[in-house]
Design brief:
disordered N terminus; NAD(P)/FAD-dependent oxidoreductase; disordered C terminus; 7-stranded mixed β-sheet; FAD/NAD(P)-binding domain; 3 domains; alpha/beta; about 500 residues; 5-stranded parallel β-sheet; 17 helices
Length: about 500
């Protein structure tokens, strides 16, 4: 039944309809499908064309707002866009594309239903392929990273990191062991790009604000470390603004280590290439991204970095009926003076590529000529925390409050749907009237833990407690005691 639902069989008596398969529901996938359903409205209404979007999640995450969501400035649900609401003329299939055989025009898709049925993946046929699966974190074989590292690419990771930071402050406030306290209040971020610097800036702001509600934690007790393998941070905003960002961070007592790598984080100790050792319970990895692994499971041409070789028209090089853009695509930059230069895999290009991509697909279906993607890079903006930022746009350099304001205005304009724009703007306005929220909702990550305990089961334990902590004590052990047993003493704050 599942295979029949996604085969390309047609209704008796009707002509075959064209299926456009969009792999990925991120920024490129969502906006391409959105523009396609607008431009192909008549064909979709007549059943001549079908747009099928295959994505692991039923929403698109606007990643530039993840640092603010982690700091509590924006509600997490407002940085995601529900695909079924926006793409109301498309078919949304929640699943993961495992392989693509473009020669046969089929994609192998695993869905929640196929896992439950145990029947194996589904073969989905298509006529036109838009492959935009995005990227994943680029990791290195650092000992302990898989066990203790925290990523920062999804809204779940952003909220989990916020809960984790507040929980570490709770641990530091209640422990009597100086070593545990210092480790809990030490936060190591690896990677000096947009994700690492903005996440560090926002969370440092939040944690410093939160110290006013802890009687035994002061802002100077917090230790923040930024580790960058190159000699500069935020290269997109230029060398001068990058140096300003370093001065701004160091003025806030943030330890910025340039030309330094993370060699190990085993046993909750961050060991750096310069010989420094930081006992820490928080290692955030933001050291770049790499293309999604599904690209290696296709018969499409890839470059040396694992990205799809594309033309300036956003077609896959040497292949018909295959298109791509964004992080997964190596698109030539026709505005560059030097030959062979590619467009940077960032949001600025992805936003504009989707418009050209959708228009070229429509033109191809109608037998019209394609146009090239042409856009000269205009610069970048970055936030360093509340009311702080850097910008290098159209040759102009801004810093401090003006740059921070430009950062917010630019990304608000790029946030999909008026609904989300209005909600985010309202939250920003309210944040100017009320105090920050510093509540940790870590129990949301394990909502059944309380019931499992009540039912006599063994609850799953959060990641940050699973690998290094001793057997459960205090409240967890008391729940398992027989009625009338004397509870164990629990140390108070201090």
């Amino acid at each position: 039944m599942v295979k029949a639902a996604y085969s390309r069989d047609t209704t008796p008596g009707s002509s075959p309809r064209t299926r456009i398969l969009v792999v990925g529901g991120g920024y490129v996938g969502m906006y391409t499908a959105l523009r396609l359903q607008q431009k192909l409205k008549a064909e979709l209404g007549h059943g001549e064309i079908e747009i099928l979007v295959v994505t692991p999640e039923a929403y698109m995450t606007y990643q530039p707002f993840l640092p603010e969501a982690a700091a509590g400035a924006i509600s997490p649900r407002h940085v995601v866009v529900p695909l079924r609401r926006v793409l109301n003329r498309c078919r949304i299939l929640i699943g993961e594309v495992r392989a693509v055989d473009h020669a046969k025009r089929t994609a192998t898709v695993a869905t929640l239903a196929t896992e439950e049925e145990g029947a194996g993946a589904v073969q989905v046929g298509y006529d036109e392929l838009v492959i935009a699966p995005g990227s994943i974190s680029r990791t290195l074989p650092v000992p302990g990273l898989a066990t203790y590292g925290i990523g920062f690419k999804s809204v779940e990771e952003a909220i989990g990191l916020r809960n984790h930071v507040i929980e570490q402050m709770d641990i530091a406030s209640s422990t009597r062991e100086p070593g545990l306290r210092d480790a809990a209040l030490t936060f190591v971020f690896v990677g000096g790009g947009f994700a690492g610097v903005e996440a560090l800036g926002e969370l440092e702001d939040m944690a410093r604000y939160a110290t006013r509600y802890y009687h035994n934690i002061k802002p100077e007790d917090l230790k923040w470390v930024l580790v960058e393998a190159s000699g500069r941070i935020l290269p997109e905003v230029g060398e001068e603004m990058g140096r300003y960002a370093i001065r701004e961070l160091r003025a806030r007592n943030i330890d910025v280590r340039l030309d330094t790598r993370l060699d190990s984080c085993e046993n909750r100790v961050a060991v750096l290439s310069d010989g420094s050792r930081f006992p820490t319970r928080t290692v955030v990895w933001t050291a770049g991204v790499k293309p999604a692994p599904v690209l290696c499971a296709t018969d499409l041409p890839l470059n040396e970095r694992g990205r799809l070789k594309c033309t300036a028209e956003l077609t896959v090089e040497g292949v018909e009926h295959a298109w791509s853009a964004g992080d997964a695509a190596a698109v030539p930059d026709v505005t560059a003076k030097e030959a062979g230069k590619e467009c940077a895999p960032n949001a600025q290009h992805a936003v504009r590529q989707t418009k050209v991509l959708a228009e070229n697909i429509v033109a191809s279906l109608r037998g019209q000529p394609l146009k090239e993607y042409v856009h000269a890079y205009v610069g970048s903006v970055a936030s360093l925390g509340l009311h702080r930022g850097v910008a290098h746009v159209y040759g102009r350099k801004l810093k401090g409050y003006p740059a921070w304001l430009m950062h917010r205005a630019y990304h608000l304009s790029r946030m999909p749907t008026f609904n989300r724009k209005a909600r985010i703007l309202a939250e920003w306005m309210l944040s100017g009237l009320f105090k920050r929220e510093i509540v940790s909702l870590g129990s949301l990550e394990h909502p059944r833990a309380e019931f499992e305990l009540a039912a006599g089961g063994v609850p799953s334990r959060p990641l940050e407690r699973r690998h290094e902590d001793p057997p459960p004590r205090g409240r967890e052990r008391r729940r398992g005691q027989a009625p009338g047993a004397a509870p164990e003493a629990d140390p108070g704050e201090g």
